[in-house]
Amino acid sequence: MAQNPIALAEKNPAVGLILATTVAIFLGLFAAVAVNAKPQNPARIAAVFPPWWSPAQTVAAGGAAGDIAASGAAPFILILRGDPIDLAQRTRSAGALLVLDPDMAGVCAPKDPRP
Known about the structure:
Layout: H1 5-11, H2 13-36, E1 44-48, H3 55-65, E2 67-71, E3 77-81, H4 87-93, E4 98-100
Helix pairs in contact: 1-2, 3-4
């Protein structure tokens, strides 16, 4: 039976240090991706919605924020087009966790995006 990581960390301080370091690394990578993948064209963005949302929720939120141009490699990622002045803000207000440049989104980007 697997032990709770927090309980394990309390028993063994080295495990706690490893867990804390791992979390810090992931948070740092997440921040770096978020900053470096800022959309070059604010009228076209890749929106990353919560992965636990259903595809219908994701499409509804994306459609409320802008025009859906394509879907990403995962069902919770959409490529949106819209007014460059407030597309990113509307997308975040609709529930997006990240707004990225579709060309720099890497594995998040669709395999065959529409221009």
